[in-house]
Amino acid sequence: MQTELGKKFWISMLVFGLMGQVAWVVENMYFNVFIYKMFHATAADISAMVMASAVTAALTTIIMGAVSDKVGKRKAFMSFGYIIWGVSIIAFAYIHSIMLTIVMDCVMTYFGSTANDAAYNAWLTDRGDSTNRGKIEGVNSMMPLVAVLVVFGGFMSFNLDEHSAWVTIYYVIGIATAVIGALGWFIIEDDPGLKKSEESLGETLAYSFRPSVARENRKLYLTLLNFAIFGISIQIFMPYLIIYYEQTLGLDNYVMIFAPAILLAAAATVFYGRLYDTRGFTKSILPVTAMLIIGYTILYFTHAHAAVQAFIGSLITMTGYLAGMSIFGAMIRDNIPEGRAGQFQGVRIIGQVFVPGLIGPAIGAWVLRNADVIVNSDGTESFLPDRGIWSASGIIIVILFAALMLTMRKSGSTKGVRK
């Protein structure tokens, strides 16, 4: 029997999950576009910003996840965190340099990671159990690309070459995030079983990094290692995705191509996530690697203005991305020790954000080190991402497949078991 969670849980999850991902989309995809268009950023500038944000996210989640366990609260961190997160987004309307953007990105990431990466994700772990993880993760994992769809749709009417457009965007997203935070005081319910940790804060912070804990929870840490490899592949291309579609492929209507692909991928992921509940981790994660390799291959061979081919490649790639997030997320939550959800958000974010955020963009920047350039109307130059990002991403997925097979062999079975 599947544990029922109630309408209030699903409303809270949808509202906070979606708004959080909308804010992350603006940071992860559009800050890159912002500094590319406003300040003519290089691939190295974009890589530096992504890496700095990844480090900030990891440190914040390690500390604030443990703090939320220590005080036995999630709701307060989520609600107040979203309010301040929104205010920090508005601050970008007044930024006029690459360096200040990078610094403020770290400030914004601190509040966002406190509210979302640490508190919201610990709350999801608190409220779910082994009977409904796949269902929860299927819905939660489609949020990033639904958020992309929302942002794309909202940004269509703006001329992103104009600074005034960015001012409006930052105000709208910032105010919306803050309003959701205020709403949280009325709709979020902490798990009744959540208790204040009796350990000291130092012990709480250090718990998930102890070698003995890693040995006791070997399956969790192996899953995080594989998740990091998966994330590296995604982070090679993701920081440059919009620039690639618009500038390299010359798809001025990239939103009309990408949006339907996102809708279909998100819908598929809702159902795919349930495969974990019925068939287990092995039989649900291996098809993800195949989807990504196929998607990357199609996009590698997509030529300029080939809208249909770009749509098919995007659909398969984004379905693999979302499905992978869903399956890895469910497996991780299923193997987090009970009562320690906050403490383990730190090691989760290391696998999901920190390692991919450092290595992926660095590989992408290296691949694009000799990329072609275009001359802008003001005489400055901007780089053009090339198809090398897809071949590099594909190589990492092949490594992931090998790592998964090795992990399964060491665990004694390649059958589709959940744990």
Task: Write out key terms for the chains shown.
Growth Hormone, Chain: A, mainly alpha, globular, 15 helices
Structure description:
With 419 residues, the protein is mainly α. The protein has one domain: MFS general substrate transporter like domains (Growth Hormone, Chain: A). Helix content is 75%, strand content 1%. The chain is built from 15 helices and 2 strands. Strands 1-2 form a two-stranded antiparallel sheet. Helix 1 crosses helix 5 and helix 1 packs antiparallel against helix 6. The longest helix is centred in the N-terminal third of the chain and has 33 residues. The chain is globular, with a radius of gyration of 20 Å.
Fold-level CATH name: Growth Hormone, Chain: A
Strand order of the largest sheet: 1-2
What string gives the helices and strands in order?
A: HHHHHHHHHHHHHHEEH
Q: What's the overall geometry?
A: globular
Number of structural units classed as domains: 1
Q: What's the total helix number?
A: 15
Brief digest:
This protein has 419 residues and is mainly alpha-helical.
Strand-helix topology:
Layout: H1 7-39, H2 43-71, H3 75-90, H4 98-127, H5 133-155, H6 163-187, H7 201-206, H8 211-216, H9 218-237, H10 241-248, H11 254-279, H12 281-300, H13 307-334, H14 345-367, E1 373-375, E2 381-383, H15 388-410
Antiparallel strand pairs: 1-2
Helix pairs in contact: 1-4, 1-5, 1-6, 2-4, 2-14, 3-4, 3-6, 5-11, 5-13, 9-13, 9-14, 9-15, 11-12, 11-13, 12-13, 12-15
